[in-house]
Write a structure and sequence with these properties.
Elements (H helix, E strand, L loop, with lengths): L1 E7 L2 E8 L10 E8 L2 E9 L14 E5 L13 E8 L20 H15 L12 E9 L1 E4 L5 E4 L5 E8 L2 E9 L8 E3 L7 E8 L2 E9 L5 H8 L3 E3 L6 E3 L9 E2 L6 H14 L3 H5 L1 E4 L5 H11 L5 E5 L9 H12 L5 E7 L10 H9 L2 H10 L2 E7 L6 E7 L2 E7 L11 E5 L2 H18 E7 L3
Parallel strand pairs: 2-7, 19-20, 20-21
Antiparallel strand pairs: 1-2, 1-4, 3-4, 5-6, 5-17, 6-7, 8-9, 9-12, 10-11, 10-13, 13-14, 15-16, 18-24, 19-22, 21-25, 22-23, 23-24
């Protein structure tokens, strides 16, 4: 097997073992180094007989099966999964972290260079998993070759597996499942012929009821034209400043964990790692001072937040139906409906016979005549609710929820005056966004006096 060691200023950053037989290279000797800050960052790879750290019977190694998308996987191929064993180190490199892992000792630019070097020579992305530093890993690589044929079936060439499962999907819905039982001692080609139309699939390979390989949301680009369309980012045009909101609708890779329960050390370091991942972020992007006339910054912040697969979105502004803010109302409804969230609530303060505010019927007619909004609603099939409250809520909020995950921002001025005021935008912490969501959702339940759904048909 091969052993990789990365050190920084003489302190071990990573120890990696790669145990596949094809990686038995007796004469292997490879070294690289780079000066970062005060110290040298060094990479060394050579052949060894065993991974001595994993020989003890009482070794408390974490085990996991990683797809190629996982930041700790050295593999860059969708046909390879990584069986990982990980020994966590209590004491992390002091050249990199402050005592107790409460922060980084390295400046951010040096940390970025260190992560770039490690990614180049190991394939691991420590920017997303900083507390992997100091740990020891044992990797075993499992490969399953598969391809799509011209008739739309999937050909797999399993070696050593006794069962393959495939789930054909249309969007996020499983439309067909198939299973093949195999003799692991025989070489074979397995063909999965779907009876339903599909656009992606999940593939799982087992040996002895143990999962050894998985690939999720696999798609194939079939032509240059399809590739170009695939790369096209959906946009939403706003009236003010001709702003173009972009929605990539990116998702996150799944990780299948195998092995024993998490140790106290692992739980503690996962909490520390969450804080480290946000070590520089709050200093840069937690709050923004928006100067008069620079309202496009607000659209950028809102667009970035909405460009996720949220289940529900709440927008609160007491003056949302202000007669002088018709353009702002249309723009923000376009911005909301351009997101992948299917359930959207735009909430305002309802005051009977208010001279400066549109009625709900007037607002509905205004939105129903906006062709761009109609096209967005029709494309995304959103459900947009206009909700009037008898309870006045002064601050403006954009809040998002997906399961138990929350995110949000607060704005210091009304949406119809973003271009004419100096004000602040605050990115809410996730726990505080949840608190705001639960509180304001409760206010909606208690004080709603009128509501209207804007149809997408």
């Amino acid at each position: 097997m091969l052993k990789d060691t990365i050190t920084y200023g003489g302190q071990i950053v990573l120890t990696l073992y790669h145990e596949n037989e094809e990686l038995d290279l007796p004469n292997r000797r490879w070294r690289e180094r780079q000066k970062i800050g005060r110290y040298w960052l060094e990479f060394e790879e050579h052949s060894v007989d065993t991974a001595v750290e994993f020989l003890a019977e009482d070794t408390q190694a974490e085990r996991a099966l990683l797809s190629y998308q996982h930041p700790l996987s050295p593999s860059g191929s969708h046909e390879i999964c990584t069986v990982m064993k990980r020994l966590r180190c209590e004491k992390k490199p002091s050249h990199i972290f402050l005592p107790g892992n409460r922060g980084f000792r390295l400046p951010q630019e040096d940390w970025d260079l260190l992560c770039e070097f490690i990614n180049k020579y190991t394939g691991m992305d420590l920017e997303k998993a900083p507390l992997a530093c100091g740990d020891t890993f044992l990797f075993h690589y499992v490969q399953l070759c598969y391809e799509k044929t011209k008739d739309g079936s999937i050909l797999a060439k399993p070696e050593g597996f006794d069962r393959l499962d495939i789930q054909f999907k249309r969007g996020s819905v499983i439309c067909e499942s198939q299973t093949r039982h195999l003799d692991p001692a025989e070489e074979s080609t397995v063909s999965f012929i779907p009876q339903e139309d599909w656009d992606s699939f999940d593939l799982f390979a087992y040996e002895g009821d143990q999962l050894w390989f998985y690939a999720k949301d696999v798609t194939f680009i079939e032509s240059i034209r399809f590739s170009m369309n695939f790369a096209t980012v959906p946009t939403v045009s706003l009236e003010r400043n001709r702003y173009q909101a972009k929605y990539n609708h990116l998702g996150k890779p799944d990780v299948v964990q195998i092995g024993q329960e998490k140790t106290n050390l692992r739980l503690r370091q996962e909490q520390q790692e969450t804080k480290l991942l946000g070590w520089w972020l709050p200093k840069k992007t937690s709050s923004y001072l928006i100067q008069k006339g620079l309202d496009t910054t607000v659209y950028d912040i809102a667009n970035k937040m909405l460009d996720h697969r949220w289940e529900e979105v709440l927008l609160f502004d007491p003056y949302l139906l202000d007669k002088k803010g018709k353009t702002a109302l249309i723009d923000w409804m376009r911005l909301l409906c351009g997101s992948p969230a299917k359930n959207l609530w735009a909430v305002y303060y309802h005051k009977a016979e208010a001279e400066n505010a549109m009625t709900l019927a007037e607002a509905r007619r205004l939105l129903a005549t906006d062709w761009s909004l109609f096209q967005i609603l029709r494309r995304n099939a959103n459900c947009l609710h206009l909700v009037g409250l008898s309870q006045y809520i002064h601050d403006r909020f954009l809040l998002c929820r997906a399961g138990s995950s929350f995110s949000g921002i607060s704005l210091g001025t009304s949406l119809n005056s973003l271009d004419s005021n100096f004000f602040c935008v605050h990115i809410l912490s996730d726990p505080f966004a949840r608190e705001c969501w639960e509180t304001l959702w409760g206010q909606m339940g208690a004080h709603t006096v009128e509501t209207e759904v804007i149809p997408h048909e």
